[in-house]
Fold these 3 entries.
Entry 1:
Amino acid sequence: MLLTEEVAQSFARQWIAAWNSHDLAAIMAMYSKDIRFYSPYIIKLEMNAEGVITSKEELEKYFGKALGIYTDLHFGLQQVLTGADSVVIYYKSVANRMAAEMMELDESGKISLVKAHYHG
């Protein structure tokens, strides 16, 4: 899926809005059933020791746990970088920590791969 700057910006705003709404169903609707999700928070929140989730069901549990812990979660969009079939969303995360997530999108525009990175 070739991403234009306009599509990437719209996608990023939709992703940020879903998280800021704390609506788990809206968040999950953006992810493919064939997901690979890498994050150090997977380890931090004791989901597994590898830091990777490969099923949508486990991803929903992880996100639900995160929303339950970070009840004041609010993301602030800083920058959107566009690739051929991916986007990098740079944003202010919990506790004002800067984060960047590289997301590959499948043919239907759903997120199929995430590599999340955090400062500090």
Entry 2:
Amino acid sequence: MTKLERARFIQQKLAELYPHPPIPLDHQDPFTLLVAVLLSAQCTDVRVNQITPALFALGSTPEALAKQPVSVVEDIVRPCGLGPQKARAIVGLSQILMRDHGGKVPADLEILETLPGVGHKTAQVVMAQAFGIPSFPVDTHIHRLAQRWKLTDGRSVIQTERDLKRIFPQDSWNVLHLQIIFYGREHCSARSCDGTTCLICSTCFPNQRRPTKTRKA
């Protein structure tokens, strides 16, 4: 298969497996999604979903969390890892949203990336899942699978994002990035498939016998 043929096959199979992929992180609005995605750094979505009910009971708006002591927020989010940093970021970005943005999460990638604790991937997730703006957030699953499927050389997460945006239609990005994540978790994980085992890998590369080496995100 050529790269374009692989991309079309992959998109078709993922659409069959996950026609309506859910957003993995529980949230009610752009702000609670932003906080949940921030907490998911180096933490599982399952753990985040266990923690956020207590956090959002404390405060589910920028106005409420901006007033909370960092130590109180840290006590709640500590199980997500990096508790001090994440707590400072949550309180800090809440204060900035109140001071500069009327208590609203801006639908602007560049502004989101200036908020404490909000990197490029987090900002892209919010743009895609909260505002429906075409984005292609690249997490570890996507970075790994894009290399296995030879859609990128994996030199960096940013390069993987650029390569995937070039090869897949823009109107598919917001759904496709979720589909790849679910496939990576359920069918083509780092342990369950070495680039030769799962349906997509074995179909795209039927003659491959050696495991595919991938670069970490």
Entry 3:
Amino acid sequence: MENLSNVIHYNPEYTYNTKIMKKIAILASGSGTNAQNIIEYFNKTFDKRVVLVCTNNPNAFVIERAKKAGVPVLIFNRKEWMEEQVVRNRLLNEKIDLVVLAGFLWLIPETFIHAFPQRIINIHPALLPEYGGKGMYGMHVHEAVLKHHEKRSGITIHYVNEKYDAGEIIFQAHCEVHGDDTPESLAKRIHALEYRYYPEVINQLLDSIQ
């Protein structure tokens, strides 16, 4: 059974019309810049909204970002994630239309994927299938791209399956890698692509859901 003490409701006035609203849940583990960008994007629409942020990190700054936006947060541990399936059950009860990973680092269980077929997506800071897999996230990706002297990098938005970064590709966008790039300077351009395209792709996918 879900431990409701883990659900933080920051704003009881955060409401929506469930008869017309397409509902998004975000899974995040860290700072939450992508999560905030997605929340702000859909707060400007009338028929789609981020209704829940879920995190496995009680110290993640994404909690503060959600708090400021008035979005409820579900904090969970590994046992609740894997054995008790608290998050999956919560999202099913909420009738979530699309599950969006935004810097979430845990592998998604098979039972979770089966509960939301083709409705879980992730964004990766490289052009998959290159520079993906376990341990390849954040600065680790940019360091690897520079180490191999790639001429370009980018983002990949993909469906999530039982393996890290191995799901069907939905969308890619690229940017040039400069000779004097550092992991930080490359990350800045990758983030710009993420902020521009991730909400747009989410919006298009939600429009295709009946």
